[in-house]
Amino acid sequence: MHIVIVGGGQVGAALARALAADNEVFVIDHDPAVADVFASLDVEFIPGSGTSADVLARAGIKNAAFLVACTGLDEVNIVACAIANKIGSPETICLVSRADFLGASPEAGLEQFGINRVLWPEAQLAADIEQVVTAPGAIDAEVFAGGVVRLLEYRLEADSALVAAPVRSLHLPRGSLIVAVKRSGKLFVPRGTTQLAAGDKIIIMGTPEAMREVAALVRPGETGERQKVTIIGGGDVGLEVAERLEKVASVEVRIIERDAARGAKLAARLSRTLVLNGDGTDLELLESEDVGRSDVLVCVIDNDERNLLASLLGRQLGVPKIVTRVSRPGNLRLFERVGIDVALSARGAAVASILHRISGGTSSLVAVLEHGEARVLELTVSPNFVARDLKAIGTPEDVIVAAILRGDLAIVPRGDDRIGPGDRILVFSTGAASERVQAYFSGTGG
To answer: Which domain holds residue 326?
Structure first.
């Protein structure tokens, strides 16, 4: 497949590394020095601007199946997609950093430029943070299919009721399912005989009603009746998170922003959020504002080093749950190793979404978990699939059907639930197994 990437930064480099082996990849960047990043990859680097018709022609845009515009400048990305659309007919994917470029729906606002898909990674990051903050005790949270299916991730303590017996004997609420366990750095789909242990991370999916019971079972002391949330960093992500949390009656929000002019804008925009002017990495300020009594600390400064410092200070002050933005995906595991509860990368999620768009067939990628190690896919079972009970299907290893979606109804299946042609299903899989999911449910199922 012929793919053109405009922008050789972190997103462009990650895409090129993932796509180079099986595709014909061209990377365009105005900075010739960026070529060194791609020297070891089987890609062709073209110095120049992605807004130049001549440069796009040199990259073979007429033959391209996809153009991904991922420079740091929204205007360049938009124009590159527009010109590519006029020269050839690639599917265009455009990254933006501001809400200004989005219409009522992401695609609608830039439809006139011939852009097929618009991604605003920071908005998705804010949505992910909101889900985690509003799920007491959880270290990750997602919502699917309009809210009829939820996902929660927990780290098990030694006294947890879930470490007492094999998975098949746990008697979880009906409508919930443990879809994955991460132990000693390895992620796997558990079997009935799997015995959970203290320190395990577990991922559970189910209906909202069942997941409320699960939360009470896993973390019985954390009801989440009222939460104090402190946000450090009042940039685009911090503002978006605050606006989302203001809509949650049980959450009390405050933002610490060191730029006074930006703080004034935040105060004018937000109605229920206390805006404080100061440096979120200043220990004296954090102590004077009693940040240690926050239930959640959200660090979303656009700088990994300062975010890490603010997070560690919050941990030292006793904040029980810390959510941190990571700009460089390579730092995700480092942040977790030093004790950060939830480390999230907007760019990493964007890369996974783009890769799935290019190579994922007709399935939709609805969530990326554990830094790309796991995925949740939504797909429609092929008309060629032979209907049968779930227990008779025998899905690929490290793949589990988490929900069957029929209209507004979500069924968290058991062995005797039946899957047939035309069913919409949510499938959890490890990253390595996700490529086999689409092929499996598009045929006869083995």
So the answer is: 227-348
